[in-house]
């Protein structure tokens, strides 16, 4: 079995794991009041940059 030649220091381990966390998605609030992700069409009203991009039926 392959065995590491040197012990991985706490510092090295920490550097390797620096990118292991899952990024929290940024939440912004649309003009319609719904929370949404920036630079994406709002899922509840279909508006992006003040324009209606997709047709959404709002449960009428
Ligand atoms: Zn919206």
Question: What would you say this structure looks like, in words?
Answer:
With 60 residues, the protein is of the alpha+beta class. Helices cover 12% and strands 13% of the residues. It has one helix at 10-16, and strands spanning 28-29, 35-36, 47-48, 51-52. Strands 1-2 form a two-stranded antiparallel sheet. It is rod-shaped. The termini are far apart. Zinc ion binds next to loops.
Q: Total strand count, please?
A: 4
Radius of gyration: 22 Å
Which stretches are low in confidence, meaning pLDDT under 50 for 5 or more residues running? none
> Helical content, roughly?
10-25%
Describe the sheet with the most strands. Answer: 2 strands, antiparallel
Distance between the termini: 65 Å
In terms of DSSP E residues, the strand content is: 5-15%
Determine the oligomeric state from the structure. Answer: single chain
Mean pLDDT: 89
Order of helices and strands: HEEEE
Which class do the helix and strand fractions yield?
Answer: alpha+beta
């Amino acid at each position: 079995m392959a065995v590491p030649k040197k012990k991985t220091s706490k510092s090295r381990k920490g550097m390797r794991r620096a990118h292991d966390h899952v990024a929290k998605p940024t939440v912004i609030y649309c003009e319609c009041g719904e929370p949404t992700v920036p630079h994406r069409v709002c899922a509840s009203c279909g508006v992006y940059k003040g324009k209606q991009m997709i047709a959404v039926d709002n449960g009428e």
